[in-house]
Amino acid sequence: MAKPRMSSIDGKLAQEFAVPAHVEEIKEKMAAFAGHHAAAGRRVVLITSGGTKVPLESRTVRFLDNFSSGRRGASSAEYFMDSGYAVIFLHRHRSLYPYTRMFSNINMLDALKFSGGASSNSGEVVVNQQVLPDIARALRRYQEVKEGKLLLPIEFSTLSEYLHLLKAAAQALSAIGSKAMFYLAAAVSDFYIPASEMPEHKIQSSNGPLQLSMNMVPKILSPLVKDWAPRAFVISFKLETDPTILLDKARRALDAYRHQAVVANVLDSRRGYVVVVTPETQAELIISDEDVKNDVEIEERIVSNLTSAHNKFITQQGG
Ligand code: PAZ
Which atom of ligand 1 is nearest to the CA of 71? Predict the structure, then answer.
């Protein structure tokens, strides 16, 4: 078998970003998951979800974080599984999770009732379905997904963990070629402090105002597309706050990395409007007021658009 090409980013990753524990074990798990599902005729999508944490000290007290809730990734995972995909869900620890995401704002104890006596610990605990609307449907679907082993959750917290785990995932999925999709919805920091320049101990406020100098995070999409999983169908996401620069940035990303599509969105309107940009096309996906009333989510439309495009891609690549 040909040896994977080493990129300059491989060296940087090894030197400047701490390798998470058990990364090789996790890579084997992902490869086995992908191999099993591809052999059963399923496609496999790797979804990244949530924000990365960037430590300011090596014994970390403080870190930089971002707004991402993980809702895009968690709801997309559900729609991909509904469409017949197996999902590797590379997500930020404690960000939103498929099927439990709808209940994340509910205090579980408010939704349960105890039928035992006042002084007894044994008795039945009953769910109040008015407090947990739709729990039966979510539970049924969650159990089906679990039985079918369709979801492989992998957690990250820091930027270093994210980068190494994404590389491991890309290498693990490369064996299934065009049947693999990468859906990179995580909000990944563009800046970091290299391990060699990071103070070990808590930064002292007695030293006065803090000035930080941060390095640019290597553009990991480049080796992912060129070296780690060159036959896969790769979708990146682009978030801006200024709508006037969004589409230009999306097209520039496609030109630079030569992957298949960019899902472009603006922070404030991301639940109701996105544009799927490919080298040849541009599709606006919109959620109307009527859709909101009917609980239609934009992720259903994004996933439908991308699974069709993935079908065509696989056919063009010869299966
Ligand atoms: O996680 P969430 O549902 O709150 O937000 C989703 C999102 C805006 C992080 C995602 O759609 C996205 O654009 N991710 C890429 C962000 C970026 O440009 O780095």
Answer: 3
Amino acid symbol at 148: G
The verdict on the CB of residue 71 being under 6 Å from ligand 1 is yes
Joined together, the tokens standing for residue 97 give 């999770």
- Give the whole-angstrom CA distance, residue 195 versus residue 59: 11
Question: Which of the four pLDDT bands, split at 50, 70 and 90, describes residue 3?
Answer: low
Cα separation of 94 and 35, whole Å? Answer: 28
Helix (H, G, I), strand (E, B) or coil at 291: helix
| Residue 66, ligand 1, Cβ within 6 A | no
CB of 193 closer than 6 A to ligand 1?
no
Ligand 1 atom showing the smallest separation from residue 271 Cα: 3
Closest atom of ligand 1 to 70 CA is: 1
With beta carbons less than 8 A apart as the criterion, state whether 154 and 206 touch. no
- Which residue's C-alpha comes closest to atom 16 of ligand 1? 187
With cut-offs at 50, 70 and 90, classify the pLDDT of residue 120: confident
Pairing mode, if any, of strands 261-266 and 233-240? parallel
Please provide the CATH number assigned to the domain covering 8-97+133-203+212-317.
3.40.50.10300
Report whether pLDDT(4) > 80.
Answer: no
Record the pTM: 0.96
Give residue-wise pLDDT tens across range 173-204: 999 999 999 999 999 999 999 988 999 999 99
**Cα 202 to ligand 1 centroid, rounded to whole Å:** 30
Domain ranges in the chain? 8-97+133-203+212-317
- Cβ–Cβ under 8 Å, residues 101 and 71: yes
Q: Are strands 233-240 and 151-156 parallel, antiparallel or unpaired?
A: unpaired
Q: In the prediction, which pLDDT does 81 show? A: 98
